[in-house]
Amino acid sequence: MNDTSAQQRPLRLGTRRSALAMAQSGQVADAVRRLTGRPVELVEITTYGDVSREALAQIGGTGVFVNALRERLLAGDIDFAVHSLKDLPTAQPEELLLAAVPRREDPRDVLVARDGLSFRQLAELSAAGRPARIGTGSPRRMAQLNAWARQLGLRVETVAVRGNVDTRIGYVAEGELDAVVLAAAGLSRLGRTAEITEFLSTDQVLPAPGQGALAIECAATNAPLAATLAQLDDPFTRAAVTAERSLLAALEAGCSAPVGALADPLADGQAVTELRLRGVVGTTDGSTLVQLSTTGPVPASEQDAVALGRELAAEMLDKGAAGLMGERAH
């Protein structure tokens, strides 16, 4: 194929088939079209995590939404792939390049509850009778929601659920659950923020490492495409999620372990001068949490961001974090 025909060939973007994955990949495809002037076609790929009905912790959540896309990348069937960054294993294969981490959406978790109720109002239902049933497939969310209810002197019942956004919200609409917890970024990308009844404060519920961010991956050997995709990279987002994922890696935890982390900016006037990294590990019943934070200069390099995550992980391990994680990755 000559250079001219290569330029005209559509770029093939690999994506999972879910409505959310298609929406976020479609946004990236639009950005790449604007950058390159080339057509971009979405290639829908089914991953093991999409077809398994088991809980992620049972099937070993690390990589189950990612591996099939990576296999197609390495085979040359697609040119690049878009992932939810929180689904990526912390170890990056040498053959693949994390070409861009675009600007992050809202990293918070949100509540979609019946009758517009808040978490506190749901927890207060337990004082009047049965505990409110709140659906989530995440041990991290379960740990922090149950701990929050304990702080209020109340309790909730966290119920393990799986499925796409429609399925989960459907449990509430049909009365099977009182609420579900989802990622704010996902509902925003689907244009469904009107269904949110409460944004959960990160002081109460820290998100998954990398939540709200996307990862754009291509073959390490495709330097021209990598250089193009790099124009979509947001340096601050990359530094923040690198610190969060470094914490996760240093804890030797998989992406379905009950670990929350968030790196956010601390500003001096208008200028961002420092990065605060917070981390939490807990038992799913909320009875024990290890929650710590550290602050440092905005990382000037990937190594600085990695060091910040490792520093906080070491402190958390000293406080007993290892004993609270249900899944350890080795």
From TrEMBL:
Q: Where is the Porphobilinogen deaminase C-terminal domain?
A: 240-317
Give GO MF terms, alphabetically.
Answer: hydroxymethylbilane synthase activity
- Provide the cofactor note recorded for this chain's UniProt entry: Binds 1 dipyrromethane group covalently.
One biological process term from GO is: protoporphyrinogen IX biosynthetic process
Catalytic reaction list: 4 porphobilinogen + H2O = hydroxymethylbilane + 4 NH4(+)
Q: Which Gene3D superfamilies match?
A: Periplasmic binding protein-like II, Porphobilinogen deaminase, C-terminal domain
Look up the record and report any one GO term of the cellular component aspect: cytoplasm
**Which HAMAP family does the entry link to?**
Porphobil_deam (MF_00260)
Q: Which cofactor does it need?
A: dipyrromethane
What protein name is recorded for this chain? Porphobilinogen deaminase
> Which Enzyme Commission number(s) are listed?
2.5.1.61
Whichever gene encodes this chain, its name is hemC1
InterPro entries in the cross-refs? HemC, Porphobilin_deaminase_cofac_BS, Porphobilin_deaminase_N, Porphobilinogen_deaminase_C, Porphobilinogen_deaminase_C_sf
Which keywords fit this entry according to its UniProt record? Porphyrin biosynthesis, Transferase
Q: Which residues carry this modification: S-(dipyrrolylmethanemethyl)cysteine?
A: 255
Q: In this record, what's one Pfam family?
A: Porphobil_deam
Family label:
Belongs to the HMBS family.
Q: Which organism is it from?
A: Streptomyces mashuensis
Q: Where is the Porphobilinogen deaminase N-terminal domain?
A: 11-223
Quote additional remarks: The porphobilinogen subunits are added to the dipyrromethane group.
